[in-house]
Design brief:
The protein has 402 residues and is α/β, with parallel strands linked by helices. The protein has 11 helices and 15 strands. The chain folds into 2 domains: 129 residues, Alpha-Beta Complex (Aspartate Aminotransferase, domain 1); 238 residues, 3-Layer(aba) Sandwich (Aspartate Aminotransferase, domain 2), CATH 3.40.640. The chain is 37% helix and 14% strand.
């Protein structure tokens, strides 16, 4: 039995996207900047995809800039704003950002910028009052991740964006994990820049987008032919963009049914594992991505039991999950996200993440819970697990409540 539970890392491209990409590669492969019919056929594909992605977030089509993915979109937002200024200014981010934001922010610090990293509570959530208190006269940009990929916590983006807008400060959010899983309406949400990624919503890898609110100016990172309204030079990857477009359109159509289905499966998995004292849920249960389940390990010692060990053991059982911290040169490093949430270095090395998607079923959830319990029992037989009733529901209960 093969079960894939790493949908936050990447999603399989849906058949409709693959079929459309094949068609574009064989029939509509022209350069969309060319004026002849081959180029104009490609341009038609490009603009249709732009409209499809724009519709997913209720944006004007000309506000969508195609990129190579979420990382480039984040970098374009951060560095593209910063390059407007001849002298260093002040940037605010959260302490739980994806590296695609954290590293550009660090680069700006090397250039003399001041960077404030907002603290979070032990569930990974920002207090909007902390943002208000951190604003300075030279603050020009706030960037806060919408849905945290490692622990699943959703940030109060509407409140944070409203504070930034009240002070006349631009606001960016990385919505890579949220788009296609929760509704996004940039006409209502107070954001100026928003990052998207195709392969997180069943489109192909290698395509992404940055929403740029009309009137907001950014400086391009690349010099060249001036494609994408002169914001992202380089001939567009028409086939992957087309796949992104159809995936976005279908995600929007399925949102009303898929989101509650994922929430039900997510909660089922939390409930099935609620009797395992070794598993400590991480993140915010109430303000949470609909497909996201995550834990740290109570007694992990790095020798017999760690997040990395569980990933390997689950893989041997045919189940794909991920560890929540990076592995560098064979050494498991503490997760910066868990560290920012107040976890010790030891605990911050033990995060695991199980993320659900289109192909996840109730049977998958129940089997995964059973296998994970068996692996934990085998690796640490001294751990006492609560008994489960004949239906597999935990008699013991986790302290992690909805």
């Amino acid at each position: 039995m093969q079960i894939y539970l790493d949908y936050s890392a990447t999603t399989p491209a849906r058949p409709e996207a693959i079929a459309l990409m094949q068609h574009v590669l064989t029939e509509q492969w022209g350069n969309p900047s060319s004026l002849h019919q081959w180029g104009q056929r490609a341009a038609t594909v490009l603009e249709l995809a732009r409209s499809q992605v724009a519709d997913l977030i209720n944006a004007p089509p000309d506000s969508v800039v195609f990129t190579s993915g979420g990382t480039e979109s984040d970098n374009l937002a951060i560095i593209g704003i910063a390059r407007q200024y001849s002298t260093p200014q002040h940037l605010i981010i959260s302490s739980v950002e994806h590296s695609a934001i954290a590293e550009p922010a660090g680069l700006l610090e090397q250039w003399g910028w001041e960077v404030t990293r907002l603290s979070v509570n032990n569930q990974g959530r920002i207090n909007p009052d902390d943002l208000a208190a951190s604003i300075r006269p030279n603050t020009v940009l706030v960037s806060v991740i919408y849905g945290q990929s490692e622990v699943g916590t959703l940030q109060p983006i509407e409140a944070l964006g409203s504070i930034a807008r009240h002070h006349g400060i631009l606001f960016h959010t990385d919505a890579v994990q949220v788009a296609g899983r929760l509704p996004i309406d940039v006409q209502q949400l107070p954001v100026d820049l928003l990052s998207l990624s195709s392969h997180k919503l069943y489109g192909p890898q290698g395509s992404g987008a940055l929403y740029v609110r009309p009137g907001v100016r950014i400086v391009p990172l690349l010099g060249g032919g001036g494609q994408e309204a002169k914001l992202r030079s380089g001939t567009q990857a028409i086939a992957t963009i087309a796949g992104f477009g159809i995936a976005a359109e279908l995600a929007a159509q399925e949102l009303s049914t898929e989101t509650p289905r994922l929430i039900q499966l997510r909660d089922r998995l939390f409930d099935r594992l609620a009797d395992v004292p070794e598993l400590l849920p991480t993140g915010d249960r109430l303000h949470r991505l609909p497909h996201h389940v995550s834990f740290s390990l109570r007694h992990a010692d790095g020798a017999r039991l760690s997040g990395k060990t569980l990933v390997r053991q689950m893989n041997l059982a045919g189940i794909a999950i991920s560890a929540g911290s990076a592995c560098h040169s064979g050494k498991l490093s503490p997760s910066p996200v868990l560290s920012a949430m107040g976890y010790s270095d030891r605990a911050a090395k033990t995060g695991i993440r199980l993320t659900l998607g289109h192909h996840t079923t109730e049977a998958d959830i129940d089997w995964t819970a059973l296998v994970l319990k068996q692996i934990l029992g085998r690796l640490c037989p001294e751990l006492v697990l609560s008994q489960v009733n004949e239906h597999g529901k935990a008699e013991g209960r986790s302290k992690f409540r909805k």
